[in-house]
C-alpha cells in the first residue's frame, strides 16, 4: 500500500473479486424460489388438415393459450423464453424474456399407418415468445400456430398428441433454467379437411 | 504514507468494500432488484477509492524517525572489509 498505483491495483482486484462473489450469491439465491407455473391450452379449431403435394401432412390449429408464469420470476431473472410443441410440434415459454410453446406428440410404435415407424418421439415447435418481465408473465391469447405443423410423412390422421409448454429462464447471472408443462389428450381428425 | 498509514489504508479498503457489498446485496435482495445491488456496490467502490487511494494526511501521522547524518558518521561502520575479502577470494579462484 506504499504507492498510488499499488493502492489502486489492490482496490480494483479486491472489488472485482467481491463483485464475482455477489453475483454467485445472487445466482444461488434462485434456489430459494419454488416456481408453480400453470398453463392451459385449448385447441379451438382445426383450420385445415391436408396433404401437401409432396406427401407431407400439414395441420393448422387455432389455439387458446393461457399461462401464469409469474412465480418463475425472481430478482435474478432477465427474461423467459417459451415454446409450444405439438404432435411433431413444440412450444417454448420463458419467464423474463422469451416465451414459447412446444407441442410434442408421442407416436406409438404399434401405429399401423406408419410404413417405417422410425421415430417414437416427434416434436414440432408451434409457437414461441419472450416474456420480458413479471408483469407480462400472466397472459391469455388466441392464436393460430406460428410455425407450420407439418409431419414428414402422412402419419398425422387420427393421432393423439401432447401440447407441451417449454420455457427457458434466462438469469442475469448464473445458470439458465428450463422446465416444461405437458398437456395431454389432444387428437387429430381421421380425415383431411 | 507511513507504515501505520499503510496498515490503516488496507484495513479500511477491505472493511469498506465488504461492508458495501453486504449492504448492496441486502438492499438488492429486499427490493428484488439486481440493479439496486449493483448501484449500491458501485457507489461503495467509488467512495472507497476516494478514501483509500489518495495519500491523505491522516495516513501520515506516524512518520519514521531517521538518524541524523552526523550520528551516522559517528556510528561504527558496517564490516565492508569482510565482504571485500570474500569477493577477492572468489575472484582469484
Automatic annotation (TrEMBL), chain A:
<dbReference type="Pfam" id="PF04573">
    <property type="entry name" value="SPC22"/>
</dbReference>
<keyword id="KW-0735">Signal-anchor</keyword>
<keyword id="KW-0812">Transmembrane</keyword>
<keyword id="KW-1133">Transmembrane helix</keyword>
<keyword id="KW-0256">Endoplasmic reticulum</keyword>
<dbReference type="GO" id="GO:0006465">
    <property type="term" value="P:signal peptide processing"/>
</dbReference>
<feature type="signal peptide">
    <location>
        <begin position="1"/>
        <end position="29"/>
    </location>
</feature>
<comment type="similarity">
    <text>Belongs to the SPCS3 family.</text>
</comment>
<dbReference type="GO" id="GO:0045047">
    <property type="term" value="P:protein targeting to ER"/>
</dbReference>
<keyword id="KW-0732">Signal</keyword>
<comment type="function">
    <text>Essential component of the signal peptidase complex (SPC) which catalyzes the cleavage of N-terminal signal sequences from nascent proteins as they are translocated into the lumen of the endoplasmic reticulum. Essential for the SPC catalytic activity, possibly by stabilizing and positioning the active center of the complex close to the lumenal surface.</text>
</comment>
<dbReference type="InterPro" id="IPR007653">
    <property type="entry name" value="SPC3"/>
</dbReference>
<keyword id="KW-0472">Membrane</keyword>
<protein>
    <recommendedName>
        <fullName>Signal peptidase complex subunit 3</fullName>
    </recommendedName>
</protein>
<dbReference type="GO" id="GO:0005787">
    <property type="term" value="C:signal peptidase complex"/>
</dbReference>
From TrEMBL, chain B:
<keyword id="KW-0472">Membrane</keyword>
<comment type="function">
    <text>Component of the signal peptidase complex (SPC) which catalyzes the cleavage of N-terminal signal sequences from nascent proteins as they are translocated into the lumen of the endoplasmic reticulum. Dispensable for SPC enzymatic activity.</text>
</comment>
<feature type="transmembrane region" description="Helical">
    <location>
        <begin position="36"/>
        <end position="58"/>
    </location>
</feature>
<dbReference type="GO" id="GO:0006465">
    <property type="term" value="P:signal peptide processing"/>
</dbReference>
<dbReference type="GO" id="GO:0005787">
    <property type="term" value="C:signal peptidase complex"/>
</dbReference>
<keyword id="KW-1133">Transmembrane helix</keyword>
<keyword id="KW-0812">Transmembrane</keyword>
<feature type="transmembrane region" description="Helical">
    <location>
        <begin position="12"/>
        <end position="30"/>
    </location>
</feature>
<keyword id="KW-0256">Endoplasmic reticulum</keyword>
<comment type="similarity">
    <text>Belongs to the SPCS1 family.</text>
</comment>
<dbReference type="InterPro" id="IPR009542">
    <property type="entry name" value="Spc1/SPCS1"/>
</dbReference>
<protein>
    <recommendedName>
        <fullName>Signal peptidase complex subunit 1</fullName>
    </recommendedName>
</protein>
<dbReference type="GO" id="GO:0045047">
    <property type="term" value="P:protein targeting to ER"/>
</dbReference>
<dbReference type="Pfam" id="PF06645">
    <property type="entry name" value="SPC12"/>
</dbReference>
Amino acid at each position: 500500500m506504499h504507492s498510488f498505483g499499488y493502492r489502486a491495483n489492490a482496490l480494483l482486484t479486491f472489488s472485482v473479486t467481491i463483485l464475482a462473489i455477489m453475483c454467485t450469491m445472487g445466482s444461488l439465491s434462485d434456489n430459494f424460489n419454488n416456481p408453480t407455473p400453470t398453463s392451459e391450452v385449448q385447441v379451438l379449431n382445426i383450420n385445415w388438415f391436408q396433404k401437401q403435394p409432396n406427401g407431407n401432412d400439414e395441420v393448422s390449429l387455432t389455439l387458446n393459450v393461457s399461462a401464469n408464469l409469474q412465480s418463475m420470476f425472481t430478482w435474478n431473472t432477465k427474461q423467459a423464453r417459451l415454446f409450444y410443441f405439438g404432435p411433431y410440434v413444440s412450444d417454448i415459454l420463458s419467464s423474463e424474456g422469451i416465451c414459447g410453446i412446444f407441442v410434442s406428440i408421442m407416436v406409438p410404435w404399434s401405429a399401423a399407418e406408419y410404413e417405417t415407424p422410425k421415430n417414437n418421439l416427434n416434436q414440432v415447435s408451434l409457437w414461441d415468445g419472450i416474456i420480458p418481465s413479471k408483469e407480462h408473465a400472466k397472459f391469455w391469447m388466441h392464436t393460430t400456430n406460428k410455425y407450420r405443423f407439418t409431419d414428414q410423412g402422412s402419419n398425422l390422421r387420427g393421432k393423439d398428441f401432447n401440447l407441451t409448454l417449454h420455457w427457458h429462464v434466462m438469469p442475469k447471472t448464473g445458470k439458465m433454467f428450463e422446465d416444461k408443462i405437458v398437456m395431454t389428450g389432444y387428437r387429430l381428425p381421421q380425415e383431411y379437411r | 504514507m507511513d507504515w501505520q498509514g499503510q496498515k490503516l489504508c488496507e484495513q479500511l479498503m477491505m472493511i469498506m468494500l465488504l461492508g458495501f457489498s453486504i449492504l448492496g446485496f441486502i438492499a438488492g435482495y429486499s427490493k428484488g432488484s439486481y440493479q439496486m445491488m449493483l448501484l449500491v456496490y458501485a457507489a461503495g467502490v467509488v467512495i472507497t477509492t476516494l478514501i483509500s487511494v489518495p495519500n491523505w494526511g491522516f495516513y501520515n501521522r506516524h512518520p519514521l524517525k531517521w538518524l541524523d547524518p552526523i550520528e551516522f558518521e559517528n556510528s561504527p561502520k558496517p564490516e565492508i572489509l569482510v565482504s571485500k575479502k570474500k569477493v577477492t577470494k572468489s575472484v582469484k579462484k
